[in-house]
Write a structure and sequence with these properties.
This is REVIP. This protein is an alpha+beta fold and 197 residues long. It has a single domain (3-190), classed as Lipocalin (Beta Barrel). It is 28% helix and 26% strand. It contains four helices and nine strands, in the order ααββαββββββαβ. It has helices at residues 3-34, 41-44, 75-85, 170-177; strands at 46-55, 67-71, 99-102, 107-111, 116-121, 135-141, 146-151, 159-163, 187-190. A hairpin with a 4-residue loop joins β6 and β7. It is globular and about 45 Å long.
Length: 197
Amino acid sequence: MSNLHMKKAVCVTAVSIIVSVMALSDVNQRCIAENNGTISNDFLLGTWYFVYQFDHIGPIPTCTCPNTTFTRPTEEELSGYRAKYGSYDLPHKITEDSLVADRGYIKGLILGGLETKTYIIDPKSVMSSGPEGYEVYVYRRINEKFAFFWRCAMRGHVRYLMTNDRNATEEEKQLAIKDRSEVFNKLIRKYCVDICY
Ligand SMILES: *[C@@H]1O[C@H](CO)[C@@H](O)[C@H](O)[C@H]1NC(C)=O
Ligand SMILES: *[C@@H]1O[C@H](CO)[C@@H](O)[C@H](O)[C@H]1NC(C)=O
Ligand SMILES: *[C@@H]1O[C@H](CO)[C@@H](O)[C@H](O)[C@H]1NC(C)=O
């Protein structure tokens, strides 16, 4: 490649990276505007199991049981997050009402009191939370036992049904998603089933 071509290639790559980052932040902003319902952070406290994944891929049941445990952060945890993320332009603020989300292999903090929440990863982690340093998630309450979860960055293509009852029956799960437009026409992949394939 000539020097000029090289410069052009570098320039195009840089522009496309910037464009894709801006597009993602637009996606997040639109997601925040469209999902403006409420869910109380108290409701999320405890352990939630991701039992259905709504996707374009088929059933494939699995006994792995992705789960997240939500707890109130300690003052020390909050100040750790504030020290690392204080200079970030986060869609939601770090407040006393934030929740620690522990997935077992990775911890983070979710911010915001409405349906959409900003997720930032534990400052001690070497991983980062997405290209912008954070992700935006939607948690939508269905009833006492069930809620939907999805990542705004996935643009609604992949959603999950989560439950705070590890023993919820298949009938209860089906009833919870019945006639819900969020998952209309999507295939269900089942987690947390007893049989391992
Ligand atoms: C809330 O979200 C709904 C559904 O996307 C939308 O129709 C409505 O305009 C939004 N309301 C506000 C105040 O943004
Ligand atoms: C919750 O997730 C962790 C980490 O993936 C896993 O080790 C554990 O078995 C899960 N809990 C249940 C009840 O399946
Ligand atoms: C779920 O079922 C198991 C096995 O039947 C039982 O040991 C456990 O206590 C139940 N958990 C809840 C929360 O009901």
